[in-house]
Amino acid sequence: MSISDRLFKLRSYMATIGVDAYIITSADPHLSEYPADHWKFREWISGFTGSAGTVVVTNDEAGLWTDSRYFLQAEKELEDTGIDLYRMGEPGVPDFKEWLSVNLHSGSVVGVNGKTMTVTAYRQLALALKKVDIRIDGKVFLEEDVWEGRYPMPECAIFELETKYCGHSRNEKIEIIRDQMKANGATHYVIAALDEIAWVLNFRGNDIAYNPLFHSYLVITENQVNLFIDPHKLTSTVGKQLAQEGIKVYLYDDFYNFIKDMLPDSIILIDPDRTNSTIFSNLPSQSAKIEKTSIVTNLKARKNETEIENFRKAMIKDGVAMVKFLHWLDNSIGKEKITEYTAAQKLGAFRSEQENFHGDSFNTISGYAGNGAIVHYAVKEETAAELHPKGLYLVDSGGQYNEGTTDITRTVVLGELTKEEITDYTLVLKGHIGLDMAVFPKGTRGVHLDILARQAMWRHHINYGHGTGHGIGHFLNVHEGPQSIRPQDNGIEIEEGMITSNEPGIYKSGKHGIRIENLILAVDDQKSDFGDFMKFETLTLCPYDLRAIDPTMLNDDERLWLNNYHQRVYELLAPQLDGELKEWLKNSTKAV
After folding, report:
1. pLDDT digits (tens, 9 = 90+) for 262-271
2. Which domain holds residue 203?
3. Of 245, 268, 300, which marks where a domain is finished?
4. For the chain, which terminus, N or C, has the lower number of CB atoms within 10 Å?
């Protein structure tokens, strides 16, 4: 069925139920960044495969709203579909709320599956549309009628992550949560975010590609833990464990009836930014609601000592895999046919050699030359470009290990470079080092640090459209909050134990893309008369490509940082290597 046929079928159903516009988000009922195939309705209806975007369909128009990471990709994938691209953040481009307000008549009805929209987003949309006398209906589940060949819900078994990897048992975490519930005056705490449930219960799953999660809901009360999950996911061993620990198991589909039937005097804590609006509308109307950032969001953002030590172990494993890959690429380019796709597969194979490896942490971004300028380039085997012994190749990848989640980007020299490529690479490196060297007082937010990664390229009138840093989970999601490093202020302070990415970049359409990414851990530095100060510890272990650096553009502090980092990379990775690999690493980490 073509995209136009799918849109026609959707519009036909919209007409029968009196809906003038339908909003299709990228989310599932758990508001996952990367949903299972069962929930990829936006992808099915539009053909756009990026991880972020919203489609809006009216009787005679359709649009996709996405951010700068996906502009080039969306242009290609939406061609001849009848769906217009709206570049979010560009001057003069309305968001879809504004667009609906202008393009619909007074009295119109906008439908949305409320299970795929946060409480906050739903309220904002309803308020914006109410101003122009347009009503929103959050109980429109058209994917159930329109989507032919929809994938079934996954039924993968869950498995336990031992305490030696995560530091605290389920019971310990639940008691910590209950203490915070009590402090907030809550009797019930509803958790719908899959990474939060996995973190609380020390279980992992395989329901979603790249994310070791399982579909479930969790309701914690003062004296009971209620888990809603497909029983096919529970082995007999896991089921017995849950029973012994007093965790009551219900069917996944029983969740909405359960929350409807909660006692009217319940005091329910929810996170309006991590809970779908249908959940909120099903809570007893008489019950008091406490709306705040999820307790678990903050608990899992600050890694404990056990998690941090395991992250360090994961970085050694990942560093070894990266060195093997870069060595192979160096010795194979120009001698055998290598494409963006086969290179990504090779990197995955090197990672799979490592103990406790559970697969990639996201779809590897493998972009040669101009494709590297597509920020979230999704390589496909049939369209992958061939790598040649010239120019730059960008590879952004990561792995899932019992010990932690990794995310690393390196831009690699494949042959002769232009002066422009060397200058751009060095500017990105200067920004990368600038952020890593930061010393900052406690209470500093990511927005305050973002300029450190951009100022060198700003002096050359260059910028990038994405954020500089995101949080990362411990054998969980590659992207997690609440902290971030970006120009927009989310009000979240950088705290001790938070692990965040450091990934500035330069992207020149049709020419090249350059990004360098490490993971950095926020640690205490020292106290002074002016307060408590913090700094970053670099966790990622992998050399930068010395062939792309113009040393004359680095100041003494940057050069010292680079040499110290490379010395540390060699000291920690060399014992895991031998022969030619060790010699390659030694040469790749020599002082400049």
Report:
1. 999 999 999 9
2. 159-300
3. 300
4. N
